[in-house]
């Protein structure tokens, strides 16, 4: 029954992938990104993609997986990896990949925000019940796993990343790491709204714009799918991949809910009110990310399964 349901889900995703709104050429919303920042976006899109793999024998960039995160009660997964060449510790969270994850996604009640490691006052802060419960279930484990690596590699930088559901986990993790005196830089891809306006302000206060990058793509519907009318608000700072995956096609946006970036195009796709998962959500910076036909194989093994290569062009997943 589960296999049948997943097969139906894959077919539904495939059927809606071609229902994207074209991005009309218009005045650029902000400055395009540097080659250096673009390369970082590609790097962490690879790590975010790898988090979808049930087994990742060859992590991106020659990194070594030092700890696997897996809480079966909340179906929350991810990994901690060490890249000795870059002198970096990366923690990546898996996004939505099965029916249990959809249960997490749909638990959209805003609940009081409390989380391991966070001691700073966050008055009136509320967060997505499903995302917060999922993060809190692995927070202590994740913090300990990173501290363990830092004990042997105190000069290494720590980076947090994730796509979709995993992006919201990464944003929540950022606050717990900062509160635990672990400086981090965070890159999220296709992140849904995760908390209310007070929580978004708290994120902006705790994590400066140089340390938190919220990347969106074209008309990706997932960043739009939980509406502001339900009390939610994005935190800063958005970087919008409007066009092809080049530095000139990615723009820095201003504010928490910029109207001239991802919010400027309807995210037609699989979700409530016809907004949600679509082609733009499943490919970031030319990296297959969260594709149900791929499952992280591209990032972990260097090439996708044969079926994916034949379907990418047909489904519009080139960028």
UniProtKB/TrEMBL annotation:
An individual GO BP term: lipid metabolic process
InterPro entries: AB_hydrolase_fold, AB_hydrolase_lip/est, Fungal_lipase-type
Gene (UniProt): faeA
Native species: Lasiodiplodia theobromae
Key words, A-Z: Hydrolase, Signal
Domain Fungal lipase-type: 90-227
Alphabetical list of Pfam families matching this protein: Lipase_3
GO molecular function: hydrolase activity
SUPFAM superfamilies, per database record: alpha/beta-Hydrolases (SSF53474)
Signal peptide range in chain numbering: 1-20
Top-level taxon in the UniProt lineage: Eukaryota
Protein name per its UniProtKB record: Putative feruloyl esterase A
Coiled-coil segments: none
This protein's record includes keyword Mitochondrion: no
